[in-house]
Each structure stands twice: as structure tokens, then as C-alpha cells.
Lipoprotein-releasing system ATP-binding protein LolD
Amino acid sequence: MLVATGISKSYPTPGEPLQVLRDVSLRLAAGDSLAIVGPSGAGKSTLLQILGTLDEPTEGTVQLNDVDPFQLEETELARFRNRQIGFIFQDHHLLPQLTVLENVLIPALANGRPSAESKERAADLLQRVGLASRATHLPGELSGGERERVAVARALLNRPSLILADEPTGNLDRRTADAITELLLRLQQDENAILVTVTHSPTLAAAMAKQQTLIDGQLQA
Ligand code: ADP
Ligand code: MG
């Protein structure tokens, strides 16, 4: 269960503070998927960062599975984030010098060397995203869509209860984008995770169970 209540975010400026989010609330259960759409600069990425515990709200609270992550001290918070939340970004953030398999295993490195179980999980996820035969390749040897699929596999490694995707198909052609969308939703359903996706794509938004628009820092139905 993801519950955000009365989230506001403002940034200091030399003049009036810049108010990015105003009193945003949402509630999502395991298996739910939500698309957040809205104009550029509306605060979509800011909201995703706050739900992902990467940024603190100015006001309001976030609870994921009954834990308020902002009450945790720093190392606890890092562990919580690593276990509970999977991130997928537009520019995939793969490490170019690591193989595809090693990139998928990055979330396991927080606990030292990856266990046999993590390696099995990584291989299984690569299979499910259709890249089993590319496990030893470097990201530079893959297409954009393939790199995004690696990022999807990596996000799921630790069986997160919450998957956050910020314009995951933004750099891809239409057909590749549709395939990634389908893949992401199938994996999210298989894993019974919550999925929140920020997108400009009407197709991707429509594929999610719920859609909301962020305008002037407020979430509209
Ligand atoms: P979106 O993802 O909807 O395009 P963002 O959440 O990235 O929008 O940004 C919303 C607004 O907040 C923008 O006006 C942006 O310039 C501002 N903003 C984002 N991060 C910061 C920051 N760290 N400091 C100051 N302003 C920021
Ligand atoms: Mg953004």
C-alpha cells in the first residue's frame, strides 16, 4: 500500500518560494498502476522523487507498507529504498563498463556480493525481458529499447513493492515503446507491485489502470 497525504513541495528562490506541489494525495494498493500525465514543469518528476524517497516533501507524509520512510535514519532509508522501490528512468542509467547481467545485479550489490539467488533472479528477469542471450554484452552493444528492457529488469531485481518509472519510453520509437509498456505492465502484474509511471505518451497512460493529471502542482482526476 502506498499512501501519500497532503504532499507539498517548494524550493527557495531569491524572491517568493517556488511552489511545485500543492496538497497532493494518493492511495494505491498492490497490483495498482497509475499514469501521471501533465505539462512539462508541472512537478511530475518531483512527485515521483518524493514517492521514491529520493527527495523530502516540504509538507505531508508518505507511507509505503505502513512505513514512513522519512522517519528512518539515513542508512535505514537507503536499505528500505533498495528493497522496496524499483526505479526506471528515461535515460536508463546503465553502467557502460558492466555487462547486461552485472547491470541487472546492481541492486543486489548493496548487500555485498550478489547471492546465488540474486544471480538466478537476474537471469530469470533477463529471460522475461527477452535478453537472455545478451547477458554478457555491454550496454553500448544494445539498442535503446534493449537498454530500457535491462533497466526494467534491474528495477525488479529485489522484488520491490513499488515500481516508479519516469518517462520510460520517452526516447523510443512507437513500436519499441509499446513493447516496453506491455512488458512493464506484465511484470508489474506478475509481481503484484504498485506501478506509478510519468509519461507524455497517451498509449502508455491508457495502458495503466488509473490516470491522473498534474496541473499547477495539483493532482486532478
Ligand atoms: P516535470 O517532471 O513535470 O516536467 P519537474 O518536477 O521536473 O517537472 O519540475 C517542476 C518545477 O520544479 C520546475 O519549474 C523545475 O524547474 C522546478 N525544480 C525541480 N527541481 C528543482 C530544484 N532542485 N530546485 C529548484 N527548482 C526545481
Ligand atoms: Mg520530468
Residues 174-191 form the longest helix (18 residues).
